């Protein structure tokens, strides 16, 4: 059957947010910026909520706060792995395949894929929740306090896979707002439940701190209900448009249900491993750090738990705010790259990879260096004054750049259907991580796991970048000038913010949380203004974000 010109037009335009019912043309970079803006906003606000709650939470737990943080981290690392296994990479796979079918004007197939995926994600959620609940004693690594934490987290595993799948479906239509808003609502409800229960248990009833932590982790289930309700609202809102797209699609593909399931699973399996990459490294830390420390040092269990909390929970909570920048761009890139791959457009793939890397560097590098500069007041504000905790946070901030880079380029590999190769490269990184773990922990203590993680992901990222350059070409020449500007301006940001912190603490109390807040805000503001002014003045911001920044320049009167 010959394809008409109308069919071709539909095929070419299918990928541009078809739920909006618009004929507007847009470049891939514009779509990436818009999608990244939504996902970044949702992710950043969610991460900020997930960090800000720590301030009252730590105060209410008092002297048990480090122990509580360590217990929280132990439970969440195991839960995160089971959650990723339950989700099974299906949301990213669905987003990728829905975008593929939308590109060829087979909207009905993409919607069938989503409905079959709902059954699959529901089944994996139930199975993984049961394993997590009944297997808790075997997964606790000998710590009986971990068992009730895993029991409370098993409930979230039931519902989150379905929620994540629905987010992936909307992302396949390049609609990032439903995902971003549901993510924010999920976190808002979760944090509200955590704070209310922690206050009631620890301050009103003076209860057991393990019980309070278990309620704080059960909040993941409560938050998931809130996030799911947002997605249901958006689905109902767009249902008539989805039905219209399905009716008017070409409907030339008749794919049996069995083949749809096979397609979902074959696409999803590599996403499980890559999606859980950072969690796998954290689990390696959790199951090796205590044994190595006990073998090398004669520290008490309380001290080792405190050191573990420093890098596994305290710094991780703050650093993941920065890493979420990379995650936001990664989520946006997958369906767009899938479209370009479907069309066989290597030039477009090259352009999208280059744009993704430059956008990543533009936001991620100054954010990470800024975080390192304000590590001392930030750690004091959220936790308490601690020299070791500050050093761990500084190192974590630099490692965040590597983690963010891996997040972006591993998503690129998935978007261009290089899933198996991405998994192979990651396994090389795991070997490097394990080989370095003992000597680095033995010599560097709490910083050791961070360094081994950084080196492991550097190896993986290097292998991926080399392959992408060989296969599709990366515009390194086009990137060289803006990257140089980003590095210089980021260093200036770091110097200004670091100087503000050092000068302030020459005269102010380093133990005060109020002082820490003032110093953080002042250093972040001045450092951020330096970066903003420099990028606007040199037109680097225009190169990254397009003409939309001209309005900001006019408001700030920068010519």
UniProtKB/TrEMBL annotation:
Tell where it localizes.
Answer: Cell membrane
Task: Report the transmembrane regions from the record.
Answer: 37-58, 78-96, 117-136, 148-166, 187-206, 218-236, 264-284, 318-337, 357-375, 387-410, 422-440, 446-465, 486-508, 514-534
Region annotation Disordered: where it falls in the sequence: 1-28
**Biased composition regions of type Basic and acidic residues, renumbered to the chain:** 1-10
Q: What is its main location?
A: membrane
Domain of life, per lineage: Bacteria
Q: Which GO terms describe its cellular component?
A: plasma membrane
- Check the record and name the InterPro entries matching this protein: PG_synth_SpoVB, Poly_Biosynth_Transport, Polysacc_synth
Per UniProt, the keywords (alphabetical) are:
Cell membrane, Membrane, Transmembrane, Transmembrane helix
Stated membrane topology is: Multi-pass membrane protein
Which PANTHER family does this UniProt record tie to the protein? LIPID II FLIPPASE MURJ, PST FAMILY PREDICTED COLANIC ACID TRANSPORTER
Q: What is this protein called?
A: Membrane protein involved in the export of O-antigen, teichoic acid lipoteichoic acid
**What species was this sequence derived from?**
Pediococcus damnosus
Q: What is the lineage of its organism?
A: Bacteria, Bacillati, Bacillota, Bacilli, Lactobacillales
């Amino acid at each position: 059957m010959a394809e008409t010109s109308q069919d071709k037009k539909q095929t070419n335009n299918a990928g541009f947010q078809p739920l909006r019912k618009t004929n507007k043309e847009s470049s891939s970079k514009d779509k990436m910026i818009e999608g990244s803006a939504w996902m970044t906003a949702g992710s950043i606000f969610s991460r900020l909520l997930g960090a800000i709650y720590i301030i009252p939470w730590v105060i209410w737990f008092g002297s048990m706060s480090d122990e509580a943080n360590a217990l929280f981290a132990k439970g969440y690392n195991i839960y995160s792995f089971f959650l990723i296994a339950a989700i099974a990479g299906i949301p990213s796979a669905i987003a990728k395949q829905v975008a593929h079918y939308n590109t060829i004007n087979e909207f009905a197939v993409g919607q069938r894929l989503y409905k079959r995926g709902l059954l699959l994600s529901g089944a994996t959620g139930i199975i993984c929740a049961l394993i997590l609940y009944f297997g808790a004693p075997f997964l606790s690594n000998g710590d009986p306090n971990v068992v009730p934490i895993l029991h409370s987290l098993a409930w979230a595993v039931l519902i989150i896979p379905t929620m994540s799948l629905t987010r992936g479906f909307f992302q396949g239509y390049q609609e990032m707002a439903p995902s971003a808003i549901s993510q924010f609502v999920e976190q808002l409800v979760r944090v509200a439940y955590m704070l209310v229960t922690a206050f009631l248990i620890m301050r009103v009833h003076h209860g057991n701190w393990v019980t309070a932590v278990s309620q704080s982790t059960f909040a993941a289930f409560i938050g998931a209900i809130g996030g799911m309700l947002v997605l249901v609202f958006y689905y109902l809102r767009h249902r008539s448009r989805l039905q219209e797209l399905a009716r008017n699609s070409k409907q030339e593909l008749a794919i049996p249900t069995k083949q749809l399931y096979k397609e979902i699973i074959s696409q999803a399996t590599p996403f499980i491993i890559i999606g859980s990459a950072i969690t796998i490294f954290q689990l390696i830390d959790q199951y090796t750090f205590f044994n190595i420390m006990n073998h090398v040092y004669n520290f008490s269990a309380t001290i080792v738990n405190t050191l573990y909390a420093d890098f596994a929970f305290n710094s991780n909570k703050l650093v993941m705010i920065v890493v979420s920048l990379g995650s936001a761009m990664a989520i946006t890139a997958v369906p767009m790259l899938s479209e370009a791959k479907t069309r066989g457009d290597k030039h477009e793939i090259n352009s999208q990879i280059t744009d993704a890397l430059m956008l990543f560097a533009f936001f991620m590098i100054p954010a990470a260096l800024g975080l390192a500069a304000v590590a001392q007041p930030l750690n004091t504000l959220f936790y308490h004054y601690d020299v070791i905790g500050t050093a761990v946070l500084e190192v974590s901030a630099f490692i965040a750049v590597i983690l963010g880079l891996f997040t972006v380029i591993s998503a690129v590999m998935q978007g261009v259907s290089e899933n198996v190769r991405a998994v192979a490269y990651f396994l090389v990184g795991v070997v490097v991580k394990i080989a370095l773990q003992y000597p680095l922990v033995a010599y560097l203590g709490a910083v050791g796991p961070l360094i081994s993680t950084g080196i492991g992901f550097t190896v993986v990222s290097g292998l991926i970048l080399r392959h992408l350059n060989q296969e599709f070409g990366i515009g390194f020449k086009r990137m060289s000038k803006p990257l140089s500007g980003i590095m210089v301006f980021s260093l200036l940001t770091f110097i200004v913010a670091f100087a503000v912190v050092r000068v302030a603490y020459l005269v102010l109390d380093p133990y005060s949380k109020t002082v820490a807040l003032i110093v953080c805000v002042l250093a972040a503001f001045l450092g951020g203004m330096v970066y903003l002014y420099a990028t606007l003045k040199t037109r680097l911001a225009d190169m990254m974000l397009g003409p939309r920044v001209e309005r900001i320049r006019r408001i700030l009167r920068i010519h």
